[in-house]
Amino acid sequence: MKLLVLPGDGVGPEVTAQALRVLHWFAEHRGLALEVTERGFGLVNWQRHGTLMPDETWDRIEAAEAILFGAIGSLDQQAVIPSEERRKGSLLRMRKALDLYANIRPIRLLDALLEASPLKPRVAKGADFVILRELTAGMYFGTPRGVETLPDGTRRGVNTHSYTEGEIARAIRFACRLARERRGHVTSVDKANVMEAGALWREVAGRVAREEFPDVTLEHMLADNCAIQIARDPRRFDVIVTDNLFGDLLSDAGGAILGSLGMLPSASVNDRGQALYEPVHGSAPDIAGKGVANPLGAILSAALLLRWTAKRPEDAAMLELAVDRALDGGTRTADIAAPGERVVSTSGMGDAVLHELSLLQREA
Ligand code: NAD
Ligand code: IPM
Ligand code: MN
């Protein structure tokens, strides 16, 4: 497997380093054929090359089979980078150019972390669902977009929430296929009551599920209600499929019920066998450089990579189990620690996962 690693900004390099240690362990002990190339992404490129995206890096991105991405974002510094440069070096360009339309964001609350969840144990215990976020259309990419000056001299900002039938249908199909491997239930989330694109979403979702996936049950839910239900009764969900913007918000809500965004992994895939793996969180400027970031979102993204790109479901399950055991054993980074609990660093969490992997390997 040829892997392109883009650590990026802020805590990106810190958490990516731990995910890479884990992948190298699988290469060394489990026969994973791994060839790693690393390139800068984000501010380091601007500082080193005067551009956010050197052509050579972009060529590698377009040709990559799998990308392991850290995080992007450095608000104050980005203000000085011209907007055209920012677009060239953005995560959105990468998602769009590779057509990574299916963004898989699993949300699984482990018993060991019940204390870290802001929800009561009787509400949260066992919550386990996936958000399938459509990632290449909707409000993020619709046109017209921009800021225009009106005749009276004031300005108007415009973005467009746009979806074609094809864009909706392929997201729904992906979600239904995911549900088949889980509990067979899909919740399609929209604002069909307000938006034309939402009404079309609902119509297409209903048709695709009915005609192509009679074995999957589909329910429709309004997005505002979904936000409530994630906090009130997260166990009712199996697969949530929704548009780009709602998926962004609802997956952060999912992170909140786990107690930390640092726990959430993601995979973004297209239909040509390419995928980008990244933790859901951003560059976390408030904690960057301190060695305290939780690397489990990145490490669990590596597990998704083992499952989706490397096609090694047993290794993926082994890594997820190693993470569960490290947490069961009481290893905590600051974001998921209860008051008074002992806290480890970013690399300390990596050590604990590697230790559990060695034990599992010996047991096997
Ligand atoms: P953020 O995800 O960076 O941080 C939100 C909160 O979660 C912060 O308190 C942070 O300390 C905490 N957090 C995040 N990751 C953590 C981890 N691994 N361990 C422990 N705590 C963690 O979001 P933000 O502060 O809204 O945005 C900061 C920058 O990141 C912005 O420039 C934003 O655009 C960017 N961003 C990038 C991505 C991405 O690269 N995919 C995602 C979200 C935000
Ligand atoms: C995410 C992030 C991105 C998004 C930002 C960094 C563009 O919040 O991956 O969830 O809004 O999609
Ligand atoms: Mn987000």
Automatic annotation (TrEMBL):
Localization, UniProt: Cytoplasm
Annotated substrate binding sites: 95, 105, 133, 224
Entry note: cofactor: Binds 1 Mg(2+) or Mn(2+) ion per subunit.
Residues the record lists as binding Mg(2+): 224, 248, 252
EC number, UniProt record: 1.1.1.85
Site (Important for catalysis): 140, 191
Top-level taxon in the UniProt lineage: Bacteria
Associated pathway: Amino-acid biosynthesis; L-leucine biosynthesis; L-leucine from 3-methyl-2-oxobutanoate: step 3/4
EC main group: oxidoreductase
Family note: Belongs to the isocitrate and isopropylmalate dehydrogenases family. LeuB type 1 subfamily.
Binding partners and assembly: Homodimer.
Listed name of the protein: 3-isopropylmalate dehydrogenase
Organism classification: Bacteria, Pseudomonadati, Pseudomonadota, Alphaproteobacteria, Acetobacterales
Gene designation per UniProt: leuB
